[in-house]
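Appendix C: a fully annotated inverse folding record. The material below is reproduced so that readers can follow the format used throughout the book. The structure is listed first as tokens, followed by the designed sequence.
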């Protein structure tokens, strides 16, 4: 049973862009907390229900609340031709908007074992992983190493360069989306290595979290994105 959220959606239109300001129309779009396609406890024992509930309802919800607030302030500042405030708001938009973008992908990257979580990728993505990394095991080892070594908070990504049709592994600090590492990069799989994603269950042992999360990775979703971008 999917979990429903109660965040109100209003009509507004401004997207996240971390490198430049976009022209702003008279209407903006605020963002709402996406539903999870599974219950909070469905990923246990890899990820506890308590962590999932806090992560979704508290952390992701807070990013959305602050993102919407910053967008409204930006809208007002542009209407007033207040360039100083527009510039000041960019960091809040990047951080909170990135938090919303990244977490929205993260929930789709996970699936209960009974629904295919952890099943290896097949078809085109499976072949691409073998070609670029030698094997799925090598890919997992490299992503775990990169994720464990990331200082502070951030994300480790498996992405595809849609221009070169090449798989890449990247890390981003804080809530920076993968696109900040290159305009042609599309995220297939992102693993949150902020402490709020694992500390209640794994304490300060991030490598244990990274080892176990692969048991509930939704490779079907990653494969669908890969097929769409590389067809």
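Designed amino acids, in order:
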């Amino acid at each position: 049973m999917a979990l429903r959220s109660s965040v109100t959606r209003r009509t507004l239109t401004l997207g996240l862009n971390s490198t430049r300001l976009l022209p702003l129309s008279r209407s903006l779009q605020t963002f709402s907390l996406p539903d999870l396609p599974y219950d909070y406890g469905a990923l246990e024992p890899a990820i506890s229900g308590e962590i999932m509930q806090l992560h979704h309802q508290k952390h992701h919800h807070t990013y959305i609340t602050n993102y919407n607030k910053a967008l409204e302030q930006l809208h007002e500042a542009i209407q007033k031709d207040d360039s100083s405030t527009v510039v000041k708001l960019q960091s809040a938009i990047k951080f909170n908007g990135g938090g919303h973008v990244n977490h929205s992908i993260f929930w789709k990257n996970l699936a209960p074992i009974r629904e295919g979580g952890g099943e290896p990728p097949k078809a085109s993505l499976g072949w691409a992983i073998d070609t670029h990394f030698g094997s799925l095991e090598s890919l997992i080892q490299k992503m775990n190493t990169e994720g464990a070594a990331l200082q502070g908070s951030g994300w480790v990504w498996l992405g595809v360069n849609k221009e070169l049709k090449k798989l890449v592994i990247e890390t981003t600090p804080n809530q920076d989306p993968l696109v900040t590492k290159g305009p042609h990069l599309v995220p297939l799989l992102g693993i949150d290595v902020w402490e709020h994603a694992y500390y209640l269950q794994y304490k300060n042992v991030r490598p244990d979290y990274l080892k176990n999360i692969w048991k509930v990775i939704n490779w079907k979703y990653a494969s669908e994105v890969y097929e769409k971008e590389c067809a």
